[in-house]
Amino acid sequence: MNRSPRRRVLAATLSTAAAVLVAGSAVLLSAGNANAATTLGASAAATGRYFGTAVAAYKLSDTVYSTILDREFDMVTPENEMKWDATEPSQNSFSYTSADQIVSHAQAHSQRVRGHALAWHSQQPGWVSSLSGTALRSAMVNHITNVATHYKGKIYSWDVVNEAFADGTSGARRSSNLQNTGNDWIEVAFQTARAADPAAKLCYNDYNTDGVNAKSTAVYNMVKDFKARGIPIDCVGFQSHINSGSPYTTDYQANLQRFADLGVDVQITELDIAGSGSAQATTYANVVKSCLAVTRCNGLTVWGIRDSDSWRASDTPLLFDSSGNKKAAYDSALAALNGGGTSTTSPTTPTTAPTTAPTTAPTTTPPTGSAGCTATVTLNQWTGGFVATVKITAGSAKINGWTTGVTLPSGAAVTNSWNATASGSSGTVSFTNVSYNGSVNAGASTEFGFQGTGVGPSATPTCTAR
Ligand code: G3I
User: Fold this and answer.
1) In the chain, what is the straight-line distance between the N-terminal and C-terminal CA atoms, in Å?
2) For residue 20, what pLDDT is reported?
3) Which among 154, 292, 325, 416 has most CB atoms closer than 10 A?
C-alpha cells in the first residue's frame, strides 16, 4: 500500500508599507473589481481564480469551438478522455492519445488542466467489471499510479474519486464494485494519487452535494475524518448540475464555506444550469458570486461550451448557444465575476445577481505614501519539489501593479508559474503582475503561483507596489 509523502504547509507574511493587513479579518474586501476584464478567464484570474470548461478532444478541430475555448477559458477538464475506460481499455495497457491532445492544447494556450477522474464506479472498461476483491483493489492502485504518473506535473487538480456517495438521505456510500473492495478504497486512492503526483491538488468530486443536505453532509464527514487522520485530500469538487430536480439553493455558499472551514479548497467542477433567459442568467450569477465569496473557492468549470456540446443539450444549460453566441447567462456570469471580490459577509446569502458589470472604477486618488502591498506564501512541499501559492494584498490604497521578490533556498529552482511573469529561476526570483491582475483595490487580494524543484521558500517575500 502506498504512503503519502509528508506535506508541509508554511506561511510567511511581510508588509512593505504601513499597509493595513486584512487577511483573515471580517471585512468586506471589495465591492467591485476595478480591473474588470472582458473574458471569463481573465475576469476570474483578476480575483485569483480560474474559469474552466469541459473539453472533448474530437471537437478541438471545430474552429468555432476552439476559438471560444481559447478566448474565454483558462482551465480545461477532459470530459471523457481521462476516464478509466479511455485510459486503460485493457488491463495494464494504457492509452493516452486523446487526453494528451487536450493537455497539449491546454499547454499551448496557457490553460491549466483538471484531471477527471481516476476512480469511479461508472465508465469503467469491461475488464474491470469481472474483477473483485484484492484483484480489483490492485487494479485500481495500478491504474491511479500509471495515469497520475503519466500526467505528473501537468495537472492542477485531480478528481481522484468521483461520485462515491449514494443519493437520498441515507448518507451511505454508493454500492459499487470499488466499494465492495473495502471501505478504505477512497483513502487508498488518495494516498496512491499523492505518491504519484505530489504537486496536484487531490479532490473528491460529487453531484447533488450543492447545498447542505444528507449527501453533502456525508461527504463533509468523510473529509473531516480524512483531515483528522492525515489522509491526503486538498479539495472538494461540487459538480453543480443544476435543474428543477436539483435546484440552486440559498445555502449553496454556506455549504462551500463549511467544507473550506475543514481546511480544503473547494471548486465548482461541472456547472450547467437548465433553463434560459433571465432565470438561468440569475442562477449563473448566484453560483459565481457564491464561489467569489468563499476565499478557498479556487474557480469554476462549466460542463461544456455551447448548448449543443452539453450532455444535456435539450436543457440548453451552458453559456453559449449552439451557434457559439454569448447568452444572457454568459453576460451575467461575466458581470458577477467583474463585480466580485472577497466577501466575508454572512455565508447564507441568497442574492439577486447584478445584471450589468460595474462601469466605473474608483475615482479617488490614493493618498500619497499609503500604497503598498503584502505578500503571503503558502507551500505544498514534498521531497524534491513544491508548489507555492502567493497572495498579494494591497494596503490602504489601490495599487496599479506589483512585483514580489521570493528568495529560494540554495538548489531550488522555479520550473513554471501562472498568473505572474517570473524573472530568473533561482536565488531571488521576481514575479510581476500580468495584464489582468496588476490593479488591486485597497485591502483586496490577488493570487499567483509557481512550481519548483528542491526546497520551497521559507523567507518572507518582498512586495513592491506601483
Ligand atoms: O464515443 C462514443 C461514440 O463512439 C459512440 O458512437 C457514441 C454512441 O452513444 O457514444 C460515444 O461515447 C459517449 C461519450 O459520452 C462521448 O460522447 C458515451 O456513450 C456516453 O455515455 C458518454 O457520456 C458521458 C457521461 O459522463 C458518461 O457517464 C458524457 O459525455 C459526460 O459529459 C458525462 O460526464 C459526467 C462526469 O464525468 C461526471 N459527473 C456527471 C457528468 C454528466 O453525466
Assistant:
1) 51
2) 29
3) 292
CB of 124 shorter than 6 A to ligand 1: no
Q: Which residues contact 221 (CB under 8 A, 6 or more apart)?
A: 171
Q: Ligand 1, residues 79, 114, 162: which to mutate, most atoms within 8 A of Cβ?
A: 79
Pocket lining: 311 vs ligand 1, CB cutoff 6 Å: yes
Length in residues, the chain: 466
Dig out the grid coordinates for 344 from the structure.
Answer: 466575508
* Mean pLDDT within 446-450: 81
Return the pLDDT at 333: 98
Least confident of 32-41, 152-161, 413-422: 32-41
270 is catalytic: yes
Could you say which of 88, 163, 270, 447 is catalytic?
270
Give residue 379's pLDDT: 78
Q: What sign does the CA torsion over 138, 139, 143, 149 have?
A: positive
pLDDT of 202 > 80? The answer is: yes
pTM for the complete prediction? 0.75
Q: Which residue has the higher pLDDT, 3 or 152?
A: 152
Averaged over 296-304, what is the pLDDT? 98
For ligand 1, whether the C-beta of 80 sits within 6 Å is yes
pLDDT at 236 > cutoff 80: yes
CA-nearest residue, atom 14 of ligand 1: 80
Buried (b) or exposed (e) across 59-79, using 16+ Cβ within 10 A?
A: bbebeebbebbbebbbbbbbb
Residues facing residue 260 across a β-bridge: none
Q: Rounded distance, CA 443 to CA 163, Å?
A: 38
CB under 8 Å to 433, separation ≥6 — which residues?
Answer: 392, 401, 402, 403, 420, 421, 446, 448
CB-CB neighbours of 247 under 10 Å? 13
Question: What would the mean pLDDT of 20-35 be, rounded to a whole number?
Answer: 36
Distance 57 CA to ligand 1 centre (A): 13
